[in-house]
Amino acid sequence: MKLIYFNDTGRFVRIHPATLGHGCIVSKDPIKPLETREFLLPKDTIPWVKMWDEKEMGLRILVSPLKETEK
C-alpha cells in the first residue's frame, strides 16, 4: 500500500526514524511546505499515522504499517 502525504502546514515536517525501522520506504529528507511525499508500506498493511510538534525541533511525522488484523 502507499500513503501520499501533502504538507499544508507551512512548516518543514521531519520523518521519525521509526518510520523506516517499521518497514516504510520513504525519503528521510524533511518534507517542505506544499510538498507531497509518498510512503510505501509493506504488502497487506495499512498506515497508522501520528504527527506532533516538538517545539524546538519542529513538526515530526511517524507512519507505521499495521496488519489489517491489528486495527
Automatic annotation (TrEMBL):
The source's domain of life comes to: Bacteria
Supply the name of the protein: Uncharacterized protein
